[in-house]
């Protein structure tokens, strides 16, 4: 017999992950995505009962959002009850293992569903005035310059500073460069 559990949340302040997942709960068109994928999802007549399609879809999205591998996602369910709650796993008396997660992840690849899912999400986001893009690559580097004061004013450039990388001192400036993949 399964015991009923009482969850008390005495936290007043929400974590960034909680806020993010609540926003994704509102923004992602879960019903439309489930409808899009339903015909490609097994009914579980020959194997153990499958997890609900929406649960597996939520797990797949969390893997992308938090860059978790299949084993990492399985472990995250034990470490972060928030993930189990977002994936709606309370109704199941078991958690998906890494092979179950892997098989679900291969399904969009096999049936070329990733483009359709992205298209459905982008359509909803565009209607709301939002845009989905990948992150940027940021590089921080030191641009070296001579520390000489042999110029007209006998002063150093005010935008230049000394920096230390390891045990080596450099005179110059830091450059932070961000670029989109596009």
What keyword list fits this structure?
182 residues, alpha+beta, three-stranded antiparallel beta sheet, 7 helices, 14% strand
- What is the topology, as strand order, of the major beta sheet? 1-3-2
Report the end-to-end length measured between terminal Cα atoms: 55 Å
The profile of the biggest β sheet is: 3 strands, antiparallel
Query: Which class of secondary structure composition applies to the elements?
Result: alpha+beta
Task: Explain the layout of strands and helices.
Elements (H helix, E strand, L loop, with lengths): L15 H12 L2 H8 L15 H14 L3 H10 L1 H6 L11 H13 L3 H14 L9 E8 L16 E5 L2 E12 L3
Antiparallel strand pairs: 1-3, 2-3
Characterization of the model:
- This protein has 182 residues and is α+β, with helices and mostly antiparallel strands.
- The chain folds into two domains: 16-127, no CATH class; 137-179, no CATH class.
- It has seven helices and three strands.
- It has helices at residues 16-27, 30-37, 53-66, 70-79, 81-86, 98-110, 114-127; strands at residues 137-144, 161-165, 168-179.
- It has a three-stranded antiparallel β-sheet with strand order 1-3-2, with no helix packed on it.
- A hairpin with a 2-residue loop joins strand 2 and strand 3 (168-179).
- Helix 2 (30-37) crosses helix 3 and helix 4 (70-79) crosses helix 6.
- The longest helix has 14 residues, at 53-66.
- The mean pLDDT is 80.
